[in-house]
């Protein structure tokens, strides 16, 4: 009886490890690779930060003094699992953080091409 219990327990551990490895494999399969990266520190004059990955994810951010107020502006772009692009532009200053979701908007160039 004791041997059956130990054998059953070992089977549960093996099956659990296999399931965990499968899940980790799926997660690891979705890890994007870095295409470009920028991180410049200009001291009291501000900074620039940006990166892009091979799955279309991008982020750009700049921080500097604007009229004596520390201001950060940036944009993040990513694609969901269906391939739809999402974008958010943001600004942070002494009045707080403002973000604008840019989904479903067409650029001026895209609108011009549609107009003919």
Automatic annotation (TrEMBL):
<keyword id="KW-0732">Signal</keyword>
<feature type="signal peptide">
    <location>
        <begin position="1"/>
        <end position="20"/>
    </location>
</feature>
<dbReference type="Pfam" id="PF00379">
    <property type="entry name" value="Chitin_bind_4"/>
</dbReference>
<dbReference type="InterPro" id="IPR000618">
    <property type="entry name" value="Insect_cuticle"/>
</dbReference>
<keyword id="KW-0193">Cuticle</keyword>
<protein>
    <submittedName>
        <fullName>Cuticle protein</fullName>
    </submittedName>
</protein>
């Amino acid at each position: 009886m004791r041997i059956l219990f130990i054998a059953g327990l070992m089977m549960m551990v093996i099956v659990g490890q296999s399931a965990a490895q499968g899940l980790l494999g799926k997660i690891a399969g979705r890890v994007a690779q870095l295409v470009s990266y920028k991180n410049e520190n200009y001291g009291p004059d501000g900074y620039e930060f940006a990166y892009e990955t091979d799955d279309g994810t991008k982020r750009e951010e700049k921080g500097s003094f604007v009229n004596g107020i520390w201001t950060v502006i940036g944009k993040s772009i990513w694609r969901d699992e269906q391939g739809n692009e999402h974008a958010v532009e943001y600004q942070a200053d002494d009045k707080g953080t403002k973000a604008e979701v840019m989904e479903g908007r067409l650029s001026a160039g895209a609108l011009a091409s549609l107009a003919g």
